[in-house]
């Protein structure tokens, strides 16, 4: 018998009571343990499957000991197997990749060329400045005209266009009896605009026919800014409201496809790529096929531009164009030329024009030269218009070419 205050409990009842309390405590402890271990976040089933697949594919990888031992072991960036599906022919690298950056909104294309004026006017040796100083002299004698000619030649305008321009300036200034520098400048402007030729259609033919996408093939020597141009062109087209797909047919340079994919991802444009060193034509084919099936407005295809032999280049670009045209007509062939390479650029232009029918020129790095005359020379050389110009290293530094804006920039 136990006495608790005024309560008296008999022995058997006390033992029963203690037994019940112990049982409740034991059951409670077991329940807490079970619930606790269930409550730990398990990786989702697909993560586990992925991990198992990973281990099957890379048995050499030791499972990394982590908290519960079930977290996925993901390869480090450098360990990613180059032969994974992203690099198989025709693999589409979409912008939904987990690492895809936030989408950028490309700047509108109108008025971009105005920036050229700012850049050229910083240059002390600009073509326009030199010409205006000469034309502003009191007496335009033979020596001065020769200097004008030399200035134009030094600015890469080319021999024939230079002679034409000088002839026309001489005649007009004589006939009109021009003494006023402002009038001389106006005449120079008119004649330069005429030489650049405003009558060309400079729109990039990016629209397809009969429900197929427009196909823009971008060619040129490596290092001229070809891949950059493809990326920037995608932004221009996106800014204009088009749906765009990129084809990384420059399989020669290891990083070119990555570079292109990054450009695309920034504006939500997918890239079709193939294995490094693979057949460029097969990537181009897959890109246009994917573009056609996916209902894209435009497919822009980057190509490799090794200047090995002309025959090799001809074979490669010829094949690329032929296989693309099994899917859809190529609507534009843009030749990329580095404006800073002068005569070299013209030589390249000649070679490419013999290999493929170029329909438009992109002059990159115009910001890096005071010799804007290359615009005139290269158009003359190929008989096709400059359609786009590169004005810097920025993402939206590719401008639609406009003759009047360009001449105004030269003369500012
Ligand atoms: N200043 C300036 N730099 C440019 C312009 N366009 C391209 N570049 C730079 O030129 C360099 C070469 O450009 P890429 O696009 O890699 O050249 P690529 O012709 O594709 O060369 P590969 O990929 O080797 O075939 C890069 O550093 C670009 O940023 C431009 O208009 N102005």
Q: What's a concise summary of this model?
A:
With 412 residues, this protein is an alpha/beta fold. It has helices at residues 11-39, 45-57, 114-121, 127-135, 142-154, 159-175, 181-196, 226-239, 256-266, 280-293, 310-324, 343-355, 374-382, 403-411; strands at residues 2-4, 7-9, 91-93, 214-219, 244-249, 271-273, 298-303, 332-338, 360-364, 386-390, 398-400.
Describe the protein's architecture and organization.
- The chain is elongated and about 135 Å long.
- α12 (343-355) runs parallel beside α13.
- The protein contains 14 helices and eleven strands.
- It is α/β, with parallel strands linked by helices and 412 residues long.
- It has helices at 11-39, 45-57, 114-121, 127-135, 142-154, 159-175, 181-196, 226-239, 256-266, 280-293, 310-324, 343-355, 374-382, 403-411; strands spanning 2-4, 7-9, 91-93, 214-219, 244-249, 271-273, 298-303, 332-338, 360-364, 386-390, 398-400.
- The protein starts with a strand and ends with a helix.
- A hairpin with a 7-residue loop joins β10 and β11 (398-400).
- Bound molecules: guanosine-5'-triphosphate.
Average pLDDT reading: 78
Q: Please give the alpha-carbon distance between the first and last residues.
A: 115 Å
Number of domains: 2
Tell me which ligands are bound. guanosine-5'-triphosphate
Give Rg in angstroms: 34 Å
Shape: elongated
What is the fourth-level CATH superfamily of the largest domain?
P-loop containing nucleotide triphosphate hydrolases
For the sheet with most strands, the description reads: 9 strands, mixed
Number of strands: 11
Function: Involved in targeting and insertion of nascent membrane proteins into the cytoplasmic membrane. Acts as a receptor for the complex formed by the signal recognition particle (SRP) and the ribosome-nascent chain (RNC).
Region (Disordered): 56-109
Organism: Mumia zhuanghuii
Transmembrane segments: 12-35
């Amino acid at each position: 018998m136990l006495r608790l205050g005024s309560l008296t409990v008999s022995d058997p009842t006390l033992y029963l009571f203690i037994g019940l309390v112990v049982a409740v405590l034991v059951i409670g402890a077991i329940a807490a343990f079970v619930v606790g271990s269930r409550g730990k976040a398990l990786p989702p089933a697909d993560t586990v499957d992925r991990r198992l697949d990973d281990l099957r594919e890379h048995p050499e990888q030791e499972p990394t000991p982590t908290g519960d031992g079930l977290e996925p072991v993901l390869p480090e960036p450098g360990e990613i197997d180059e032969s994974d599906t992203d690099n198989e022919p025709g693999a589409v690298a979409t912008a939904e990749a987990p690492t895809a950056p936030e989408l950028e909104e490309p700047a509108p294309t109108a008025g971009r060329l105005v920036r050229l004026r700012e850049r050229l006017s910083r240059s002390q040796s600009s073509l326009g400045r030199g010409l205006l100083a000469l034309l502003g002299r009191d007496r335009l004698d033979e020596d001065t005209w020769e200097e004008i000619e030399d200035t134009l030649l030094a600015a890469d305008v080319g021999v024939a266009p230079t002679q034409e321009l000088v002839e026309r300036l001489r005649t007009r200034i004589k006939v009109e009896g021009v003494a006023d520098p402002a009038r001389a400048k106006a005449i120079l402007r008119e004649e330069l605009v005429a030489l650049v030729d405003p009558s060309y259609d400079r729109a990039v033919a990016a629209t397809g026919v009969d429900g197929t996408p427009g196909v823009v093939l971008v060619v040129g020597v490596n290092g001229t800014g070809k891949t950059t141009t493809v990326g920037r062109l995608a932004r221009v087209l996106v800014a204009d409201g088009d749906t765009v797909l990129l084809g990384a047919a420059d399989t020669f340079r290891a990083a070119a496809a990555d570079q292109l994919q990054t450009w695309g991802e920034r504006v939500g444009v997918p890239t079709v790529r193939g294995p490094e060193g693979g057949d460029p034509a097969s990537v181009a084919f897959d890109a246009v096929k994917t573009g056609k099936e996916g209902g894209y407005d435009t497919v822009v295809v980057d190509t490799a531009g090794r200047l090995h032999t002309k025959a090799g280049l001809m074979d490669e670009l010829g094949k690329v164009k032929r296989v693309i045209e099994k899917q859809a007509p190529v609507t534009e062939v843009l030749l990329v030329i580095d404006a800073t390479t002068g005569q070299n650029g013209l030589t390249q232009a000649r070679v490419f024009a013999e290999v493929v029918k170029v329909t438009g020129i992109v002059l990159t790095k115009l910001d890096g030269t005071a010799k804007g005359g290359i615009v005139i020379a290269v158009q003359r050389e190929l008989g096709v218009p400059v359609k786009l110009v590169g004005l810097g290293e920025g993402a939206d530094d590719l401008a639609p070419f406009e003759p009047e804006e360009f001449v105004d920039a030269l003369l500012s």
